[in-house]
Amino acid sequence: MAVTNVIDSGVTSALNATASTSSNSADLQDSFMTLLVAQLQNQDPMNPMENAEMTSQLAQINTVSGIESLNETLAGINGQLDTSQVLQAADMIGKGVLVDGERVLVGEEGVTTPFGVELPQAADEVRITIRNAAGEVVRTFEPFSMDAGVESFTWDGTTNDGTVVAEGSYSVSVSATADGDSIVATTLNYALVSGVSLDANGAPLLDLGGISDPVDLDDIRQIL
After folding, report:
1. CATH domain 96-223 topology
2. CATH 2.60.40.4070 region(s) of the chain?
């Protein structure tokens, strides 16, 4: 009958709407029951609605309600995760971290900021070179082996001949090999977390005091 077609069409539209937007479950159920009662009142007594048909329609409206409840639950979980990330980010204010970068700063008496190396796999030979602002090599480290992951290092601020370098900014470059083949090695520089802000989506961003653009939590490779 025509009323049956209206109910089927209404339930299908409700399912589609729920999949794309957050619908009001109570309103959907009220509308469904109104249509169902109208169908029962106007059905042909000689050809009444089959039990299976009614069960199917009830199952569809329960699916609509279930999808909305699931969406609300997921939204609540996402909200809790966002809050947890903000609290985690705020707890990092004042801490030193390693992020992608090549800079090493040298202060008075050769005091330097730490730096790091990240490898996707173990290497049997890692070479570290430090250069000044003019690109001249001032220090090379003895080759060493390293497991996959992140390790932090400290330079004593001296050249290969033991002279203390001038204050300023220096760069670090890393090369690594495994069984004679080159592998990707990422250099990491030190930064101090000075504040937290939120991006357009409400996710926390860490302010590194001008060392680089604000970064998210996933960009932190190590906390020192």
Report:
1. Immunoglobulin-like (2.60.40)
2. 96-223
Rg of the chain over CA atoms, in angstroms?
32
CA distance 190 to 165: 19
The contacts of residue 84 (CB under 8 Å, 6+ apart) are none
Q: What is the pLDDT of residues 28-67, one digit of tens each?
A: 667 666 776 776 667 666 666 555 565 666 666 667 666 6
3-class SS string, 55-94: HHHHHHHHHHHHHHHHHHHHHHHHHHHHHHHHHHHHHCCC
pLDDT digits (tens, 9 = 90+) for 165-202: 999 999 999 999 999 999 999 999 999 999 888 888 77
Paired tokens of 71: 């969406």
Amino acid at 10: G
